[in-house]
Amino acid sequence: MTLHGADGADGADALLTVLELLARQAPPARFEALVDEARRSGLGDGELHRLERAVELAGTIDAGRAHDKRREAGLAALADTARDLTLSYDLDGLLRVITRRARRLLGLDLAYVTLRGPHGACYVHTTEGSRATTGTGRGDGPHLAPGLRIAEGYGLGGAVQLHGEPVWTADYLADERFAPSGSLDAGVHAPAFDESAESALRAEGLHAIVAVSLRSGDTVIGALHGGDRRVRHHTAEEIALLAALADLASLAVEKAGLLDRTRAEVSELERDGARARSRLTRMRHVSEAHGRIMNLVLAGGDLRNVAKAAADALDATVLIRDPGGRCLAAAGDTPSLDEEAVAKASLDAHAHRRPVLADDVTWVAPVIAGSEDLGVLVVHAAGGLTGEDERLLELAAQSVAFLLLMRRSTAVAEGPVRDELLDDLIADPPHAPQQIAQRARRLGVDLRRPHVLVLARPEGGEQGRAVVWASSYAYRLSGLKTVQGGCIVLLLPGIDASAAAKAVAAELSPLLGHPVSVAGAGPAQSPDGVGRMHQEAGRCLDAMSALGGTGSAASMQDLGFLGLLLSDDNDVDGFVDAAIGPVLDYDAERFTDLTHTLEAYFASGGSPTNAAEALHVHPNTVSRRLERIGELLGPAWQKPGQVLEVQLALRLQRTREVLARGRVTSDPARQSGPPERTA
Question: How far apart are CA 465 and CA 475, in angstroms?
Answer without folding.
Answer: 16
